[in-house]
Records
---
Amino acid sequence: MYNMKSFHHTIIALLFFTSGLHAQETGLVKEADLSYLKALTKAVLESSRIYPGQIISKDFGPNNTGGILIRPGGRDCYPSFWIRDYAMSLESEMVSVMEQKHMLRLAAVTQCDQTWVTRNGSMVPLGAIADHIRIDDSQPIYFPGTYDYAEQGNKQYGMTPPYDDQFFFIHMAYFYVKTSADSKILLQDINGMRLIDRLETAFKVPPSRQDNHIVYATQEFRGVDFGFRDAIAITGDLCFSSILKFRAAKELAVLFEMMQNKGKAAMYREIAAKIKKAIPGLFSDQRGMLLASTGKSRQPDVWATALAVYLNVLEGDVQKKTCRFLADAYKNGTLSYHGNIRHILTSDDYNNSTAWELTSVDKNTYQNGAYWGTPTGWVCFAIAKADFPSAQKLAKEYIDDLQKNDYRKGKNYGAPYECFYPNDYSQNPVYLTTVSCPYAVFKSAIKFHGP
């Protein structure tokens, strides 16, 4: 049986977890700006909620799932429940325990229980977690690009579902247990399988190297490495997916410790350690940036690099080199625009026609060169380790742009946008992770963001 005293000790340790910012490095944003960002995040999150029975699009029925769902943003964007965006917003600490439990159960109930092949020839493996879930009939859509269950899955988005959702599912469960103290849910039967077993099954879905547990994809049988670039074809060993797997392994280790299963806890800690050891050698370039992969679109990846610093995957002299380079990239203008971040530095574009090597979208639009707010907090966190004033300046630029274009001013305003570019291009107003992810970083240097 689970030991409650041990549980409380574990939770206390988590609450005081820090990934390395020193005391003098707190305060990336001023108190007034943090209060503004908190209020904006809260407003966007409320706009993103879909209440039971609520209709948000004439093309879909009401929310029939029996509880509140959180979609990727407000207004008319994304009329479904996306696992990824929701899981990435949990550290804002603005989602109630009741809401978390409902969405966790929905993700578990719709987990694939039998491997099958779609009409378009893609495979949905046993244990796969949906990319998004329809609100009207709870049908799981495992691939990006459609809301049609029968027509999902084609080569544009890979031959297997995105790799990240499995790891975000584990993060959902971990965060729920951490905030609710409801460890009993791990033993709860969900369609004939305990939740903890579903988590382990999900963990094993993305193809991984047998020696170091790094996630990989082949050209012939590719999966999207991370849904925030599902329009990019990336193959070989995959950096971002492996970083998410590193965190998921550490989270599973903590969950098994709570269940007094020391053997499983040790196993997952060993997996995390092997991934952490492998990442710098596999992906680092001579400047300290992490490459997105070792195959197609093998390019320096700002998002993966900053997240690796944030989650303490990179340490010591390697981390110092990386953070210094990001700080220099910010100062020379290749990293950001109005506080928002590109996937690729402008100096690292594949050629004059595209930022990424293989993509289905035009250069300087969407995931192929537009600027995003989602990773701004991770980037500020990394830069702060080398040049704290520059990190503060970047954060201030981000806040200033939100204030200038705040959607609450009226229908002609849309910030936080999903992404934008200086030529008046923008996409998806009132976008949640654009504010929830940076807010989670800015609100406190020692607040929880991983085991």
---
Amino acid sequence: MCLANAFDNAITFIEKLNEPWGIKDAESRHVYLNPLARRYTNTPNNFTIEGKLDVEFPADWHELHDDLIKHDKITINKKGSVSVLEVHHWNGASKPTPYISDKIPLYDRDSNCIGIIWNAKPAPIINPILSVFKNNNSSIFSHTRDEITEKEHAVIWLIIQGYARTEISDILNISSSTVKSRLHSVFQKKSIFNIKQLRELYINNGIDSYIPSSILSNGLLFI
């Protein structure tokens, strides 16, 4: 039986949507890509995707296959949606471009998970120094000596996303002491004393949704 038959309803739903959407089965084999998903993944029109694993695709992003499969499994085990920051040469871009991919588990009539459905949309990125103009709000970023630097913004953005200091050290390729120093600097500049206050400050001003450009490189990151 054709693998796609079990996903007919989902395919009908996504085939004409104006964003990249795709479907994979519970073993992370591809079932369907809508036209924009083919463009997004740089997949040739004459390449048959049904039953293929990520590593089998004729595109450079297949180097991310281990992490992609890991995220598929987390989505299935979590029984809920998972968001991932994906940075690569999507849509044939000449330089790495960040997208946010939302993965959602799919179930049959007996409530058995049969795979995942995913989409991708451009990630919101902003230089923290410019955010004051976007939000017309000087409570966080201002052109003074207490200005938050982009390096500091990268650390606190990752903290707000739930990453531990040791993980931030690995992601940014800096020492744990540097992570601690940048966090302490932000606390001093903004007269706050703990992570709870930091999170409230950033979320209340909408800055948490903007991804610092300094953390972007080819790869995947949970958000």
